[in-house]
Design goal:
The complex is a heterodimer of chains A (about 350) and B (about 500). Helix content of chain A is about 45%, strand content about 20%. Chain A has about 350 residues and is α/β, with parallel strands linked by helices. Chain A folds into 2 domains: about 200 residues, Bordetella uptake gene, domain 1 (D-Maltodextrin-Binding Protein, domain 2, 3-Layer(aba) Sandwich), CATH 3.40.190; about 120 residues, 3-Layer(aba) Sandwich (D-Maltodextrin-Binding Protein, domain 2). In chain A, helix 6 links the parallel strand 6 and strand 7. In chain A, helix 2 packs across helix 11 and helix 4 packs across helix 13. The longest helix of chain A is centred in the N-terminal third of the chain and has 23 residues. In chain A, about 50% of the residues are buried. Chain B is globular. The relative contact order of chain B is 0.18. Chain B is mainly α and about 500 residues long. A two-stranded antiparallel ribbon of chain B has the order 1-2. The chains are: A alpha/beta (about 350), B mainly alpha (about 500). Chains A and B meet through helix 1, helix 2, helix 3, helix 4 and strand 7 of A and helix 2, helix 4, helix 5, helix 8 and strand 1 of B.
Chain lengths: ~350, ~500
């Protein structure tokens, strides 16, 4: 870093600090413009700070903010009870005014909804309206694992129960492993690690034989983790995963596509009360996908572009309902309530 | 990339030139650390618009200085008013506050500052020297080993209970029971939450910490001032001689600083292991290997040095997995990762080839931040110790106001303010009936993570409890654990026999 940069950085730092202080000191309505939105948005994220949802939401919000009169997005993180805390808090304690939004991972969190029966109803209380990605669940091992192919994993799991590191028990990747075990007569012992990062560490360290997680995070660990197979009709990140085959192609099974899918959500009441506001949010969110800055931010965050796929409210609802149905089918294996 | 001397010198030069980002970071970190409830990760999240706009090296320097200073200053209120600024400083209360009561507040602050800075410096240098090997440590210490490491911390309950075993164990068991509140670690089934959403995550650490220490201490202060049971703190007139006396103590017990710093580093490298595990384990181990264990808890300098050095050793350790394998070692490191990724920097092994100025620079910046803290904080010991002389009618409302806001600030639940007050009453009753509040806190802090690692280990062992003895490293740790439990009992019996003789 040269002298010039330092000077610019120092000035920028001073200006930014002063700006932040001023923004805090000004009354919220001071910079208000007519119409919606007149203030910043408040976003509940039902997972921890620094996680995949946090990074993806921040990559998205720069572009969206430009289309919403420069209004910013302020995040709060409530990761407890597999996301239940964040969802209940959003539905029951945040005003349904279209300024309060939620950014969640529909797959695992709708499974949580089905299994834990939180105090809200889907889709009556909450609606997803802008899907950002489709992140297929994948089976992975460490590079020097004796399990070189997914066939080896299944063969070994027929001899002894294999320890599988997963992020949470209520997760599409966990369902994938259970479905594969059921179809092939293999036994998988799921071990929840409470997040993608510790799950990857468990496999790297050899504590677990195999791992199952969404594939996009694994592509960033190429060389330290090896993807063996994906639970999808095609492997869209084949170039980043050494052409790992799909589970169905290898075993001839008919396991449904099992993926995580991050999406923006809003109170259903807000849609009913403020249809104009919702329309603006829906339309502007869809436009962000054409923003070059969004694509650049995704690249910086290490999100493969192949996984980015817009989905509207109808698609999101359809997917969420399918996840609830799937979770109910595997309830005995996924829940403590046998 | 190999780290040669020329590169290292260049990195130091660049880091010193970032003084304009480091000094505000230190100032903010010190301020935030003193206030219970204001964590470094939340502060960094609030400041993300600023750090994302900054040059990446400047942003890193700012965040790292804030983080390190925060770990350092948590010990200040622990020493002066028996209120840890963060969970990592809870063990500092044990001897730090006793030193204040003995009229040695200034010395205790100097011990805390020197241990923190030295612990941070030693471990930063160590990381620079052996970073690739340290990254492997996080992969070697697995769930089974963590079970034993946390048990080291839990045995501190027994140590604290030495004076009154029954009350000590009741306090610890009460804490462990409280620690079991929340959803279970495997299926997220709620336990003892009574339907309160605020308890689904378990008992929140900040309100519990604030209640047990801050609120209860305020009640005790009020009672001492206006009631009958008065045991006033000895007044100390601030003078430079006391600062020098503190420095002399640091030199005398320098070895305590060194080895507990390495202990903190090793624990910090394990993703998810917090500073409070390191500080409790360091305190317990320091006492175990001391020739005068009976002095711990009475205002003994190593009782301040060990936890403070260890919890600052954690700061370097936490960043090792973040930089080396791209996996954050803690929540503050996770926020730093957002900034780095926003700037297009991919963390992991390639970072050392692609951006060595960042990969190694982080630890050089940390070293520079600790060096810059020395002239800033040492004189502070003299003036900060004056807090003890502030009249009760001023300090109590101030502490209560700040800490109750702190209880709210962490999660923004009104419930947490009430919880802090409730735990204040529990803490007050514990103090008045000679139960050790630290025993309760250890149960609340370590209970949930002990359960997490134990359940995980048992699932890995597929129900076979022998999995806990399946690893050579864990078995060595088990032996050390047994020794650390048996030796104090044997030693006390021997002393008792001598006393009788």
């Amino acid at each position: 870093m040269g002298f010039t940069n330092r000077m610019i950085g120092r000035r920028a730092f001073g200006a930014a600090a002063a700006g932040a202080a001023l923004a805090g000191a000004l009354p919220r309505g001071a910079a208000a413009q007519a119409g919606f939105p007149t203030r910043n948005f408040r976003v509940v994220i039902p997972t921890g700070q620094g996680g995949g949802a946090d990074r993806l939401a921040r990559s998205f919000d720069d572009g969206w903010s430009k289309l919403l009169g420069g209004r910013q997005f302020e995040y709060e993180f409530y990761p407890g009870a597999a996301g239940q805390v964040g969802y209940e808090l959003f539905v029951n304690r945040r005003d349904p005014d279209a300024y309060n939004l939620l950014f969640g991972n529909m797959g695992p969190e709708m499974i949580m909804y089905a299994l834990q029966r939180p105090r809200f109803k889907f889709p009556e209380d909450l609606s997803y309206f802008c899907r950002i990605d489709i992140d297929d669940s994948a089976i992975f091992v460490k590079p020097d694992s004796p399990l070189r192919r997914v066939e080896d994993v299944v063969a070994e799991a027929k001899k002894r129960p294999l320890n599988v590191a997963v992020s949470r028990i209520p997760h599409p990747a966990s369902i994938g492993m259970l479905a594969l075990g059921e179809a092939q007569g293999a036994r998988f012992n799921l071990i929840p690690y409470g997040g993608g990062s510790p799950t990857m560490v468990a496999v790297m360290s050899g504590e677990a034989d195999v791992g199952a997680l969404p594939v996009s995070g694994l592509t960033a660990q190429a060389g330290r983790l090896k993807v063996l197979s994906v639970f999808a009709r095609e492997n869209v990140v084949a170039r980043l995963t050494e052409n790992a085959p799909t589970v169905n192609a290898v075993f001839g099974t008919r396991i449904p596509d099992l993926y995580s899918s991050r999406s923006w959500a809003i109170h259903t009441k807000a849609i009913e009360r403020y249809p104009d506001r919702f329309k603006l949010l829906e339309e502007t969110a869809a436009k962000v996908f054409d923003d070059a800055a969004f694509k650049a931010a995704l690249e910086r965050a290490g999100q493969p572009m192949e996984t980015v796929k817009f989905g509207d409210r109808a698609l999101c609802t359809e997917y969420a309902m399918a996840m609830i149905e799937l979770a109910n089918r595997y309830r005995p294996q996924l829940s403590a309530q046998r | 990339m190999e780290l040669d001397l020329a590169t290292l010198a260049d990195l130091f030069g660049r880091s010193f030139s970032l003084w304009w980002a480091i000094i505000p970071g230190i100032a903010l970190g010190l301020a935030v650390g003193v206030l219970p409830g204001f964590s470094p990760q939340n502060t960094l999240i609030i400041l993300l618009p600023v750090t994302l706009a900054m040059d990446v090296e400047a942003a890193l320097a700012f965040m790292i200085s804030l983080y390190c200073a925060n770990h350092l200053s948590g010990g200040i209120p622990a020493i002066l008013v028996n209120i840890p600024g963060s969970a990592g400083a809870a063990a500092t209360c044990l001897d730090g506050y006793q030193m204040t009561k003995n009229g040695q507040a200034q010395q205790a602050l100097v011990l805390s500052f020197v241990a923190s800075v030295a612990g941070g410096l030693i471990t930063s240098f160590a990381v620079l020297a052996i970073l690739p090997y340290l990254a492997q440590l996080g992969l070697i210490l697995r769930s089974v080993e963590m079970v034993v490491i946390i048990l080291f911390g839990l045995t501190l309950i027994a140590v604290l209970a030495a004076k009154d075993m029954l009350k000590g164990l009741i306090g610890g068991a009460f804490g462990l029971m409280l620690g079991a509140i929340g959803t279970d670690q495997v299926y997220s089934t709620p336990r003892a939450t009574f339907g309160f959403l605020e308890l689904y995550d378990g008992l929140p650490l900040v309100p519990v910490l604030i209640g047990l220490f801050a609120v209860s201490e305020c009640l005790v202060m009020l009672e001492e001032k206006f009631g009958t049971a008065s045991v006033p703190t000895k007044a100390q007139r601030p003078q430079w001689a006391d600062t020098l006396d503190g420095l002399r103590m640091c030199v005398r017990y320098w070895w305590q600083i060194v080895w507990t710093a390495f202990l903190g580093l090793a624990i910090g490298v394990i993703p998810g292991a917090g500073a409070y595990i390191a500080s409790f384990v360091a305190y317990q181990q320091s006492r175990l290997y001391s020739k005068t264990p009976e002095k711990y808890g009475t205002g003994f300098p190593p009782g301040v040095l060990a936890p403070e050095s260890a919890n600052n050793g954690v700061t370097s350790g936490t960043l090792v997995p973040t930089m080396a394998i791209g996996i954050p070692g803690g929540s503050t490191a996770a926020v730093m990762m957002i900034v780095l990724q926003y700037q297009g920097i991919t963390l992991g092994p390639r970072l050392f080839q692609d951006s060595p100025n960042i990969a190694y620079g982080v630890f050089v910046m940390m070293t520079v931040a600790y060096i810059m803290m020395i002239p800033l904080i040492l004189p502070m010991a003299r003036y900060a110790s004056k807090v003890v002389a502030v009249p009760v009618q001023v300090i109590v409302p101030l502490i209560l106001g700040l800490t109750v806001i702190g209880a709210f600030a962490d999660r923004e639940y009104i419930f947490d303010m009430a919880l802090a007050l409730g735990f204040g009453v529990i803490g007050y009753i514990a103090v008045k009936t000679n139960y050790h509040v630290t025993s309760i806190l250890i149960g609340v802090l370590l209970g949930p993570i002990f359960e997490r690692y134990l359940l995980r280990s048992l699932r890995i062992g597929q129900g076979d409890i022998m999995v806990l003895f399946s690893s050579p490293i864990a078995n060595v740790l088990w032996v050390l654990l047994v020794i650390s439990v048996v030796v104090p009992i044997w030693r006390e019996r021997r002393l008792a026999r001598r006393a009788v003789a």
